[in-house]
Structure formats: structure tokens, C-alpha cells
Amino acid sequence: MSIDESTAARVAKLARIKVDPEALPALAQDFNGILGFIEQLSEVDVEGVEPMTSVTPQRLTRRADEVTDGDLQDDVLKNAPDAREGFFAVPKVVE
Fold it and tell me: Sorted alphabetically, which HAMAP family does this protein's record hold (predicted)?
């Protein structure tokens, strides 16, 4: 697949990037280089290779799933302009 100047201009417009018309040939060439690299990657045989999350094997540290700051309902609701029955009260917007 090859990217021409009109396609590069369209991609720039879709990405909302202002590109001068004289810079379009270089942009199209850069896009073609990127696509060439992607084609090289698709030629690599990855059968049997497990996906990695990092270049170094490591496990993510996990914390215990515990509530540490609960029971603050009164503190949270005291700044509300209108609170009823332990909840925020808001005006009705649908008839």
C-alpha cells in the first residue's frame, strides 16, 4: 500500500493537524515508511510466542481489597445544597 499526497492531506485533516502543502510530500514519505515497517512486522513468525506486558518478567503488586476510608456519609453530605435521607437531592429535570 502506498500513500500519496492527497491521502496524506486527508489523514492530516482527519487528525486535525495543519500541514503546509509543501510539507505534504515529506509527510506522505513518512507515512509510507511507517507502513513499510508495519509490513515488516507482519512477516515475523510469532506462532507460540506469549504476549508480554513488559520487557522484564515481573508481576504487578496488588493490594488487599479493603475499605480504608468509609463511613464519611455525613461529612460528604454536609456540603450538599440539598440532601435528603442520606443522599444528594437534585431537581427533577424530566417531566
Answer: GatC
Taking the C-alpha atoms of residue 81 and residue 78, their distance in angstroms, rounded to an integer, is 8
pLDDT given for residue 34 in this prediction: 94
Element (H, E) at 58: none
Looking at the whole model, is its pTM more than 0.85? Answer: no
Fold of 5-42: Histone, subunit A (1.10.20)
List strand residue ranges (DSSP E) for the chain, in order.
Answer: 83-84, 87-88
Mean pLDDT across the stretch 47-58? 83
